[in-house]
Fold these 2 entries.
Entry 1:
Amino acid sequence: MSVPIRQQLSVAKYLLQQKFKGNKRYPLVLMLEPLFRCNLACAGCGKIDYPDEILNRRLSIDECLASVDECGAPIVSIAGGEPLLHKELPQIVEGIIQRKKYVYLCTNALLLKKRIDDYKPSPYLTFSIHLDGNRERHDASVCQKGVFDRAAEAVEMAISRGFRVTINCTLFQGENAEEIAAFLDYCKKLGVEGTTIAPGFSYEHAPAQDIFIKMRDSKELFRKVFKLGRGRKWKLNHSSLYLDFLAGNQGYNCTPWGNPTRNIFGWQKPCYLLVDEGYAPSFKALMEETPWQKYGNSKNPKCANCMAHCGYEASAVEDAVKNPLKAAWVALFGPRTDGPMAPEPVPEYDADTVGAKTRPAIRIHAVD
Ligand code: SF4
Ligand code: SF4
């Protein structure tokens, strides 16, 4: 894992506190979406399909900071929409840093050069830049030529100014393991702290639906990528067991409460990927009222192909706390890339969910 030791220790301390208190469900990363407006219109986006009156709404500084306090997660991922379009974002980021929470500011980077002076380098602040692969693939993914070059330039500029920078990459249909491996080499060469990589989630409201990868195909793709990665020293911004899960070696249940989402509608049930399940008025209500047992690969057809970090990174971290030797082994030697995979979840949809629309595959907006 490429995360600095200071951050790892502070997250470990938080996890131990939760265990000590006997908390069974607790948040690890708050997904804060202060607006849905974006300056791009990607084909697979599940966030920008709203009328103007919704796209014009913003969470205020007070609403954002109250949500951070209410939730208590040690990490806050600010996504959207495009967060840099929010005029009060610098104050929101500053307020979160003052609370000693780690902020991942997720951006497509088109405005980063213009807005960089609004921010100061800090161990608590990371710019997480959306890059879905090499130039050709990224520009196709965001439906606009030239975006890759502008984002790559912004990455170099932010690193040269002393900021922590990571890359967030979402994979879609038609990905090729060699291309992904070359992209991860490129990320390493750029000098970013780490790269987040996951298969896309098929948003029900995304304009394109034929671009998402099925779960089995995702696992096979990740096995090929990890095999190619041996000795190439990529910095992947995930826990070792989440990578093992991507390679099909772990069969986790989803823990969406690990990544609660707050946006202009309230607290989103159960995670930021499912948009039609309703909202809770407070974090407490979200934790108490959400029918968590109805979500996850085997539980809900809408979740069938999901391998997103918002559902499974917290499951992997929980497993690592219980099985540190297993986690250390995978961290040292990498995920297994051949042999049998962990069994696929067997659907057990109940009467309420079986009528839900079944979709062929999945996409993640992740943290862009
Ligand atoms: S996927 Fe991200 S960058 Fe693309 S339109 Fe949606 S919010 Fe904007
Ligand atoms: S499986 Fe994925 S989509 Fe379903 S609740 Fe979990 S994180 Fe959300």
Note: The beta strands are 29-32, 75-78, 102-107, 125-130, 164-171, 194-199, 261-263, 266-268, 279-280.
Entry 2:
Amino acid sequence: MRCPECGREMRLSKEESIESFKGSQVRLSYDVYRCDGCGSSYVDARSLDEAWKKIWDNYEKTNCIPSPADLRRARENRSESLCG
Ligand SMILES: [Zn+2]
């Protein structure tokens, strides 16, 4: 990816940030493009989405919120419990 400001090739680096989520602190890890030329930085939106998705997945697991796939399985096979 090239810098929209100055046209230089940007460097991909990893960034971490602590965010609050459902009353607790979670650590997000995502990609950021940095420009050595002008100092601009741009968050890779897709990697940030994925980081949040992981937080959600963890949250659903620890709180036993069934995913749509689990619900479908449960309907198809009622002997299977949702919480494993
Ligand atoms: Zn630049």
Note: The chain has a mean pLDDT of 89.
